[in-house]
Amino acid sequence: xxxxxxxxxxxxxxxxxxxxxxxxxxxxxxxxxxxxxxxxxxxxxxxxxxxxxxxxxxxxxxxxxxxxxxxxxxxxxxxxxxxxxxxxxxxxxxxxxxxxxxxxxxxxxxxxxxxxxxxxxxxxxxxxxxxxxxxxxxxxxxxxxxxxxxxxxxxxxxxxxxxxxxxxxxxxxxxxxxxxxxxxxxxxxxxxxxxxxxxxxxxxxxxxxxxxxxxxxxxxxxxxxxxxxxxxxxxxxxxxxxxxxxxxxxxxxxxxxxxxxxxxxxxxxxxxxxxxxxxxxxxxxxxxx
Length: 289
Hints:
It is a single chain. By secondary structure, the chain is α/β, with parallel strands linked by helices. The chain has helices at 18-26, 47-57, 73-82, 103-113, 149-155, 177-180, 186-195, 217-220, 224-244, 250-266, 278-286, and strands at 5-11, 34-40, 62-65, 88-91, 97-98, 117-128, 133-138, 145-147, 166-168, 198-211. It has a five-stranded mixed sheet with strand order 3-2-1-4-9, sandwiched between helices. Strands 5, 6, 7, 8 and 10 form a five-stranded mixed sheet that branches. Helix 9 runs antiparallel to helix 10. The protein is globular, with a radius of gyration of 18 Å. Residues 269-289 have low confidence and may be disordered.
């Protein structure tokens, strides 16, 4: 059976959420075959049991990747990618979920008809951990459009919702070092894969991002020390991308680096910052340009 899309899902301690994610994958209506590849990182709750139950029901649809010890999100993502066989990779972490049963079909149809497109994404609803609406959405444009890589660089990691991303697997088979040097990989991934061709935005809400999930990276990084360290990582990553892309996007890279540096310098004086998660902080200063 030929697999066109691998749905890559990393999960850790997502007992309350993982079923929503898996159900949203299984509800996809497509004219092609897809496989769900789940990286379960030795959760301390009932996440593994829930996944095992789904595998019993759908043995040909779900593939489990795990180990005897916790490896961390970065390594978990890498091993899931290596165990994926689809032409395309669709991302969704275990605490998020899709909301449109035609999401994959719409994205794949566009990319198959437009081979120069190397990244497809869409808007997303932002909900609380209990799925309660926040009234906020991630919607970078007000219509379907080609998205310049420069917009992704300046927009930050939340510009393209991670659970909306679809891209050719081969583009990430041998990632450059700058991409693996930062603790959050979705931002450099978006820049890298879009730079090989172009990104296309579908102006439809087809997924939900949960905010305030206990134990998530955004929730455990709300300290001055970790925020400043993240800023340093972002600057080094941007330098790496700039060199890798032969300085094609230098203006956007330099503009973003300046804002990161200004943000880091003024961080202690921003009292309101404690109310935001890390992606909202980074995105906030970028949009203040």
